[in-house]
Each structure stands twice: as structure tokens, then as C-alpha cells.
Amino acid sequence: MAHTKRHSCELRKGRYSQPGNYYFLTTAVADRRRIFAASDHAVVVLDTIRWLDSARQFIVDAAVVMPDHLHFVGQLGDSTLARVMHSLKSYSANRLAAAGVSSPVWQDGYHDHGLRKDENYRARVAYVLQNPLRARLVQRMEDYPHMILPIWWRSDERID
């Protein structure tokens, strides 16, 4: 357990929340349980992400809820990364607990990556969204039900 807490502290070193910047965020289910394999549980997380977007905390371009983790990308609104992740985890955990999911739902911490000017945003988004293909959960990305696609997405989008 001490290792987990130490690792969480290491993840926070150098973390900087800049409203208006684009971020790639990832977090995992506690003990990597596959709770989002149940569609109704995955929908709770997608609804929570849409709520973050409507509240302008995090303007979501894309998201994919995998069976045991979550990726989402977009622009930080008038908030901090810590506040966004706290809102996401606490709101979804409360709704999932009401649906019978045992606590804790989420692992401590999260991974964030701020987009640098020299990075290809579309290629990074494509990589995130193609997680279900790489995990062999579907044969075509468009068949995966637990994602939010960016409005600019084309079905033929590929990683360069």
C-alpha cells in the first residue's frame, strides 16, 4: 500500500492545470476490476463526462470507457485537473454505489498529459479512441458502444 501512495505523489509532481489547454486524462478502476464491462455502469461514466462538459469544467472532445479504465481528452475549462478528476470520480462513484458497485470504484490518482504544440492532436485522439480495437473488444471501432467521438471524427481516421 505504501508503494501505491508514493506512486500517487510522484504522479502529481510537475502537474500544472492551465485553463484553455488540451489534456489527455486516464484513470483506472480500483484493483483493475472490469466493472465497465456492464453497459449500464459504463453509461454512468459517460453521463458524468457529459456533465463535466456541460458544466464547462472540461470541454470533452472524445472519451472511451474501457472495461477497467477510462480515457478522455479535451480542453480544460474554468477548473483544475484535480477538481475535474475529483468531480468525475466522486459523482460517478456515488451513482455506481447506488447501482450496487462495491467501493472503492476508482484507484487513487490519474495520469494527465498536456498537449504540446508540436504534437498531432488528431493522431493522439485517434490513438485513444482505438483502445477497444487494440484490446480486441470489437473488430471496428465504430461498434464500440462506450465512447464519445469528436465532431470532426471520420470513420476512416487512422493513426499516422
Write the layout of secondary structure elements.
Layout: H1 2-12, E1 22-28, H2 39-54, E2 58-65, E3 69-76, H3 81-98, E4 111-114, H4 121-129, H5 131-134, E5 147-148
Antiparallel strand pairs: 1-3, 1-4, 2-3, 2-5
Number of helices: 5
Report the strand count: 5
Low-confidence segments: none
Strand content: 15-25%
N-to-C terminal Cα separation, in Å?
39 Å
How many strands, what sense, and barrel or not for the largest sheet?
5 strands, antiparallel
Class per helix and strand makeup: alpha+beta
How are strands sequenced across the largest beta sheet?
Answer: 4-1-3-2-5
Q: From N to C, what is the helix and strand string?
A: HEHEEHEHHE
Q: Identify the overall geometry.
A: globular
Helical percentage? 25-40%
Radius of gyration over all CA atoms, rounded = 15 Å
Mean pLDDT: 88
Describe this structure in words.
With 160 residues, this protein is an alpha+beta fold. Helices cover 36% and strands 18% of the residues. It has a five-stranded antiparallel beta sheet. α2 (39-54) runs antiparallel to α3 (81-98). The longest helix has 18 residues, at 81-98. It is globular. The chain starts with a helix and ends in a 12-residue tail after the last strand. 28% of the residues are buried.
